[in-house]
Amino acid sequence: MRRNRFESIPLAWLLAAVLALALFGSALAQDGQAEPAVGDAQTSIADGDFYLERGDCPLAQFFYQEALRAEPQNADAQVGKGRALSCQGAYAHAIEAFQAALSADPNHLAAHVHLANTYQNQYQSDPGAFSGRLADALDTIQRAERIDANDARVQNTKGLVLYRLGEFEQARVTLERAVALAADPGSTLTGEDRSTVQVNLGSVYRELGEFEMAQQAFRRAVVLDPASSSARNNLGAVAFLLGDCDTAEFELSQAVSLDPSSLAAASQLGITLFECGQVAASLPRLEHAVQMDGAIFFPPLFTYLARAYLEVGQVDEAVRRAQHGALLADPESAEAYYWLGRAYQRRAGQGDIDRARDAYRRALEVEPGYPEAQEALTQLP
């Protein structure tokens, strides 16, 4: 998977539970490997940057630490170390590194930006344990804004924090400014960076219900970085919301091809095919998605798969996947219980009608007045 240099807003449609899953272990070197040679601090930092850009975060961390052995107060080395730790999921240690960089250089803009992003990542990894990290991120990026309010990275990160805080109107204003700054002829941002800002802005438009504006932003993101799975994933999702199944299917297929490990893209492609009437085509996509890492944190995916199996007449599989959807849902889902009831009722084996009745009743306990469950219950013998 390609790595962006700035944080991007995660896809909001249907997949909030998927977002905060990737935690990586850290190790400096494996047994039997020779230690890489290092030189002076600046050379080590350059080597660390090279490996970080390649996604080899443990090796990048090694070089940044070598730079710090030569120059313990080198703020750039601390920032690099923090980035390498953050990409391995070691957020607490990354935060310490960024704070050390700011102790050495209080006006280090990149340290503020990366610290704010790491606070957000730590929050996403465990919102219950780190509920205050979004406030820390906002405070950090506001300090960066006092250093340079016209830096696109600063405005992008501030917009991202506001988005996650639910301050969508403020996030919109901030990200529109970030887009303008990124497009300035004097900007040093790459097309990939500018694409990320457009994805963030499009995500805010989507949250505000401005789907056409979101579509325009995501299209610009794809033009700026055609190889961005995130941009194509978002474009496909909003195309679906606008009723354009052909575009949705094409862009989501591209997103899956660009990043086969993306549960968000794989799930949305399967769901879009199902909702657009291509039930048979959705089955292998949905079945593949539920076997991916993190799928258990997205119970609606199993419910969709159960519905697809019901549509094609594979009732036993429908019951099995509907059971997964109902059992995994936390909090409990009335819809999951409703479709579990439908699967039992359709199978109609020994005891299945009673099981269906229990499932419909459970759906009504979770959501009193659920019309589909109420109607199904009254029609049971």
Structure, explained:
The protein is mostly helical and 381 residues long. Among the domains are: 39-120, Alpha Horseshoe (Serine Threonine Protein Phosphatase 5, Tetratricopeptide repeat), CATH 1.25.40.10; 298-381, Tetratricopeptide repeat domain (Serine Threonine Protein Phosphatase 5, Tetratricopeptide repeat, Alpha Horseshoe), CATH 1.25.40. The protein is 69% helix and 0% strand. The chain has helices at residues 41-54, 57-70, 75-86, 91-104, 109-125, 133-147, 152-164, 168-183, 191-207, 211-224, 229-241, 245-258, 263-275, 279-290, 299-312, 315-328, 334-347, 352-366, 371-379. The longest helix has 17 residues, at 109-125. The chain is elongated, with a radius of gyration of 24 Å.
Topology:
Layout: H1 41-54, H2 57-70, H3 75-86, H4 91-104, H5 109-125, H6 133-147, H7 152-164, H8 168-183, H9 191-207, H10 211-224, H11 229-241, H12 245-258, H13 263-275, H14 279-290, H15 299-312, H16 315-328, H17 334-347, H18 352-366, H19 371-379
Helix content: 55-70%
CATH class placement of the domain at 298-381: Mainly Alpha
| CATH architecture descriptor name of the domain at 298-381 | Alpha Horseshoe
Distance between the termini: 53 Å
Short description:
With 381 residues, the protein is an all-alpha fold.
List the keywords.
Serine Threonine Protein Phosphatase 5, Tetratricopeptide repeat; mainly alpha; 19 helices; 381 residues; single chain; 0% strand
